[in-house]
Amino acid sequence: MRDSLQSYMKVGIVHFMAYPECLKGEGPIYDTLTKIVEDDFFSAVEITWIKDPAERQRVKSLLAASGMTVGYGAQPALLTQKLNLNSFDPGERKRAVDQVKACADEAAGVGATALAVLSGPDPGERREEAMTLLIDSLRELAGYCQGKGLRLILESFDAKYDKKCLIGPHKDALTVCKAVRKDFPEFGIMVDLSHLPIQEESPKKAFGILKKANIAHIHIGNCVKQQGHPLYGDQHPRFGIPGGENDVPQVVEFLKALFEIQYLAKGRRPVVAFEVKPAAGETSGAIIANAKRTLTEAWARV
């Protein structure tokens, strides 16, 4: 591709995955986020919960000065507390909804424009019932987010390898999306390249099911399907790791598929964000540089 990468997308990164010591809402959040903010390769960043109000205020000031597009991931708050938006237990489902509302308050407070969640576990034979409950939760949350100036996004995950989430296959993601979008047309699905191999879907299949209108956000990353591998499943290893699924050729295929549905097109600059995590013995700086090189090389081949 001759045109600049930045002409077609805002390149982003998931801060709490690149710096997993911050994933639980604690740790050196401000200091590590500063490293991303000061790197002008990135035009967008995704953060998560910040438990210390003083640290949250520092982050708010940092992001306000950055000029970046800011997203907020509520997934860590849900996963680390084992909260489930499609729980059959009304009390448990309310706790999950209340936690996401608290995250929405935080997100709006630091200047984010979108908030992402994930579904709970796939219950097997009671899947249809769980999808109805998930839709109810998402509709309530979409209304709450709308009042905060936030777009609600549902990220799809694998159904059988690692997270084993209800959503899940993109045909089910589409069903949920259509139901929520009836009253909240800004709602949409996040597709993550790092999940596609363990969802057993190609980019063309996933995008063909969802279509451009239902896709709200894009992540790119890697995963491992090889049984017995220390990073098996949805661990977001660096691109090109031995035994992994995604490297430059797969990113090229993914970008081409995004162009085919005109998600990437002249006059559009959606966020395309890295979600990568350092493995044992690796540094955050190294895997961030790896991701940037991978995208730059892939772009040259599109």
Structure commentary:
- This protein is α/β, with parallel strands linked by helices.
- The protein has one domain (5-301): TIM Barrel (Alpha-Beta Barrel), CATH 3.20.20.150.
- It has eleven helices and eight strands.
- It has helices at residues 15-18, 29-37, 53-66, 75-80, 90-109, 127-147, 170-181, 196-199, 203-210, 248-260, 284-301; strands spanning 10-14, 44-47, 69-73, 114-118, 151-155, 188-192, 215-220, 271-274.
- An eight-stranded parallel barrel has the order 1-2-3-4-5-6-7-8, surrounded by four helices.
- The longest helix has 21 residues, at 127-147.
- It is globular, with a radius of gyration of 18 Å.
- The chain starts with 9 loop residues before the first strand and ends with a helix.
Q: Supply the number of structural domains.
A: 1
N→C terminal distance:
5 Å
Helix/strand-derived category reads: alpha/beta
CATH class: Alpha Beta
- The helix tally amounts to 11
Percentage of β-strand residues: 5-15%
Order of helices and strands: EHHEHEHHEHEHEHHEHEH
Strand order of the largest sheet: 1-2-3-4-5-6-7-8
Radius of gyration over C-alpha positions, nearest whole angstrom:
18 Å
Shape: globular
Overall average residue pLDDT: 97
Helix content: 40-55%
CATH topology: TIM Barrel
Strand count, sense and barrel status of the largest sheet are: 8 strands, parallel, barrel
